[in-house]
Amino acid sequence: MYIDAPDIETPSQLFSAPSSSPIISPILKATKTVASDQQLEAEVLSDVSHVALDFSTLLSPNTAVIRLFTLIGRVLVISSDYIQDHYISPDEWVFQLFMLGYSTHSFLKSVRPLVAAATSNSTLTVRDRKAYSLLFDIIGMSVLQFKTLITSETLEWVQLGPNEEMQLDGDFIYWLYSGETSSTRGDCNSTSDSISSRIFGEVQFARKLQEPLLTASKKKSKVKKVESTEVAPESRWRKIYVGRGGAVLLRISTNKLLDLMNDDAELSASVQRLVLLCMQEKLTRSCAEENISNSSIPVAI
Q: Is 143 left (phi over 0), alpha (psi -120 to 50) or beta?
């Protein structure tokens, strides 16, 4: 018995069918037109490279995305120069290769921590999730950025025994997870709802954020130098005293945090928002205490 087999389309027919589409067909024709004219292809690559280099900051605020567009723009610049006459001068080669290498290094530097956090097999613990919900989620930090801080060992959990002392030297920021601590500025416990009352060392970190601005400015008055040298030791040697039941704190390395902030503008904005929030809460609390003390003073009539 003979059975007729259905007609099967060949691979050439499968791939040629979409070309008749009213949407894909003009795109294919335009691509063939550009590829057939080297001068036109060079101009298109040059225009696209200018868009990638000059307008990448308008496309996304993410640092990794901006640096990716910059890297693509550098590749297109080299391609457009070479396509015109298949020749690039040696000095132009040196300059373009240097810029390409710098763009590649910057892109990998901003992407490497994110890739390490995304591919990490470690999961967030209960303490990590609580710290994120109570502190980092409020300032607009994403979960991936939080995992980046953990995988890069910027965040570490520290457990202190009863009556231990902890010195704030500006290298770390501490967030109280559980227990009680005290300092010259008042007592603190883990049940406090205020963020600023559970964080220590943010003032020293704020000064670290200002150091690049101060060094970049060429004109500095001698009065400002004297004030900075007089105020710094007092806050630098501030101590935190742990209560009788001990305490568990989240330690944040300021040096590693600054390195990550230099390669991630969104992370930098979140951390600066945290510092500003702590300053606002402390200022509001000090003003309220001052108003209470002034209202308690009897007024002579």
A: alpha
Residue 94, class by beta-carbon neighbours within 10 Å (0-12 exposed, 13-18 middle, 19+ buried)? exposed
Residue 148: the pLDDT is 94
φ and ψ at 272, to 5 degrees?
-65, -35
Higher-pLDDT residue of 80, 188: 80
Those residues with Cβ within 8 angstroms of residue 140's Cβ, 6 or more apart along the chain or in another chain: 269, 270, 273
Maximum C-alpha span of the chain: 122
**Most confident region among 24-38, 70-84, 128-142, 216-230 by mean pLDDT:** 128-142
Q: What is the pTM of this model?
A: 0.69
HSE of 74 in the Cβ direction (CA atoms, 13 Å)?
21
**What pLDDT is recorded for position 131?**
92
The Cα 23–Cα 36 span in angstroms is 21
Cβ-proximal residues to 190 (8 Å cutoff; 6+ apart), any chain: 176, 177, 178, 179, 180, 198, 247
Q: Within 10 Å of residue 255's Cβ, how many Cβ atoms?
A: 11
Cβ 45 vs Cβ 79: under 8 Å: yes
Query: Which tens digit of pLDDT belongs to each residue from 201-220?
Result: 888 888 888 776 666 565 55
